[in-house]
Each structure stands twice: as structure tokens, then as C-alpha cells.
Write a structure and sequence with these properties.
Blueprint: H1 2-26, H2 31-51, H3 61-87, H4 90-96, H5 99-112, E1 114-116, H6 118-134, H7 143-152, H8 154-178, H9 182-204, H10 209-218, H11 220-243, H12 246-253, H13 256-268, H14 273-293, E2 295-297
Antiparallel strand pairs: 1-2
Helix pairs in contact: 1-3, 1-11, 1-13, 2-3, 2-9, 2-11, 3-8, 3-9, 4-13, 4-14, 5-6, 5-8, 5-14, 6-14, 9-11, 12-14, 13-14
Length: about 300
């Protein structure tokens, strides 16, 4: 029962955080600063756990190595995601998350020697087919041309890059989780992400920090909501990883794509909602096939 609650909370929190990220980019906030500010607020939120002495435990080098790598990858994947949201609709980017299963399938072939089962190939075809319903195209434009242009869009390329980095992050988080607990992994993920994001901001946004602080001051309620939903999303992801295999968890999380399409319509007036809901459902089904039935090995 608790695992089901974790999954539902994660499914709801992910698209909600994407809404707040996109709203901030529309108000001229820089994606890197958005992630840095979110990490800062998350760090403030977990500090009471230190004051209460809840985390005074000893961990080996393996835990810290996995956590530092996961935190760095987490900052990178989130920044890439916000850059994608800056230029592409939420109802388009949400369904693209199904391609994470395709990425994991490909990585399994090259890194683990796993040969896809027939159902895995069918899952890939479903994801590609669902993409046809998600892409934007003009009335007089052939769908094949629109599909090719879709993958050339900068926002889509940022989203695919974020997926690849996020899929790798999940592996290191799972390794750290096996050496500690979901709560401890979450706390150090939040804390370690802050100095990494701060260093990137210092290097890349030197002349814009003052401007970004002004936006932060004016939009602090949205930043606070973003930090809350991000925290809920990450903590419930880790709690789910603690109960289920990462691949199964990621497949269940695909249900959030349907909510992303609706929220894109509700908050950003993005069109073609019925077609995109259909495409999202097809892509989610393809992702589930890959995860549950798509792997075999020799």
C-alpha cells in the first residue's frame, strides 16, 4: 500500500514541478539558476535533520562516490530539462520521457550484452508510433517531414540529453540507496547538489546573478512550490526504488506523461490535447512492454 502511495505521489509531483519550471523560464529566469535556487531551498528544508542528529551515521567511500556522481548528474539532467521546457511545450516533452526505456534497452545491449526480446522491439515501435501523435505539424505538412523536424528541434534534443543523464543518475542513486536508506540518500542528494550548482552559476552566470536574484524575489512563491514538488518527486522516487527495481519503477512513472499533457493544455494553452493524450498512452504502453517483457539475455 505504501509503495502505491509513493508511486502516485511521484506521478503527480513530476509534471507539477515541470509546470513551475516552465513558468519560471517564461518569467526570464535562467534554467541553471532555477536549479541552483531549488537546491538551495531543498538544502534549507533538510537542515533540521542534521540539527536533530538523524543523519550522524558512518558511510563508506562507495556511498560518497555514488552520491557525488548522482548529485552532479542530477543537476545536469535538471538543467537540461529546464532548457528543454524553455523552448518546447510541456505536452510534447512529457511523453518523450517514454524514450528513457528505449535508452536503457540500448545501453543494456552494449554494456550488459542483453539481447532485446520480441516484446522489447514491439515496445520500441509503440513508442515511435506514439510520437507521431505528439509531434506538431502544419495542416499541409507531411507527417514524415514533421517527425524528422521534431527530432531536430533544440528543445527535443535537450530533453533526450536530459533523459540519458537522468537514466545514468538513477543507477548511481540505486547504488547509494543500497548502502544507506531512501531518506539519507535524498538528504545528501539535495545537499551535494547545491555546491555543484553554485559552482556552475559562478562560472557561467557571473554577470546575471543580480538579475536572477530580482526574479527570485518577485517569483519566490513559484520557487517555493518548485522546491516542494521537486523534493516530493525525488524522495518518493527513492522510496519506490527501495521497494521495486529501478526499471519497473520508471515504467510506472510513465503514467505522469498523461498528466503532463493535460497540464500543458491547462496552464500553457497547448493544443491537440486528445491526440497527444492518445500518443502518450501508446508511448507509456510501449515503455511498459520494454521494462516488463522486453529483456532477454544469452
Amino acid at each position: 500500500m505504501l509503495t502505491a502511495l509513493y508511486v502516485v505521489a511521484r506521478i503527480l509531483a513530476n509534471p507539477a514541478s515541470n509546470v513551475f519550471q516552465k513558468q519560471l523560464t517564461q518569467r526570464s529566469a535562467n534554467p541553471l539558476f532555477i536549479i541552483g535556487a531549488t537546491d538551495a531551498l531543498l538544502t534549507l528544508g533538510v537542515l533540521p535533520l542534521f540539527l536533530l542528529g538523524a543523519l550522524r551515521l558512518q558511510f563508506g567511500a562507495g556511498f560518497w562516490t555514488n552520491m557525488v556522481v548522482a548529485a552532479a548528474l542530477g543537476v545536469a539532467s535538471n538543467v537540461l530539462l529546464v532548457y528543454a521546457l524553455q523552448s518546447t511545450g510541456l505536452s510534447v516533452l512529457g511523453p518523450i520521457n517514454a524514450y528513457k526505456s528505449v535508452i536503457s534497452l540500448v545501453l543494456g545491449v552494449f554494456l550488459l550484452g542483453e539481447v532485446p526480446a520480441p516484446m522489447g522491439a514491439i515496445g520500441v515501435l509503440l513508442i515511435v508510433a506514439g510520437s507521431y501523435f505528439v509531434v506538431d505539424r502544419d495542416a499541409d505538412q507531411p507527417r514524415s517531414s514533421a517527425f524528422a523536424r521534431f527530432f531536430r528541434e533544440r528543445g527535443i534534443q535537450f530533453r533526450f540529453a536530459a533523459l540519458a543523464v537522468s537514466a545514468t543518475e538513477a543507477i548511481f542513486l540505486k547504488k547509494a540507496l543500497l548502502l544507506s536508506s531512501p531518506l539519507i540518500t535524498f538528504v545528501f542528494w539535495a545537499i551535494l547538489g547545491l555546491p555543484i550548482a553554485a559552482a556552475a552559476i559562478a562560472l557561467l552566470l557571473r554577470g546575471r546573478v543580480g538579475q536572477e536574484v530580482v526574479v527570485l524575489r518577485d517569483e519566490w512563491p513559484t520557487y517555493a512550490r518548485l522546491a516542494t514538488t521537486t523534493g516530493v518527486m525525488q524522495l518518493t522516487s527513492l522510496l519506490t526504488f527501495g521497494k521495486l527495481q529501478v526499471g519497473y519503477s520508471l515504467a510506472l512513472f510513465q503514467l505522469s506523461t498523461l498528466i503532463s499533457v493535460f497540464l500543458g493544455y491547462r496552464y500553457f494553452q497547448e493544443g491537440q490535447i486528445r491526440k497527444r493524450l492518445l500518443g502518450s498512452a501508446i508511448m507509456a504502453a510501449g515503455a511498459a512492454l520494454i521494462v516488463f517483457l522486453g529483456h532477454s539475455s544469452y
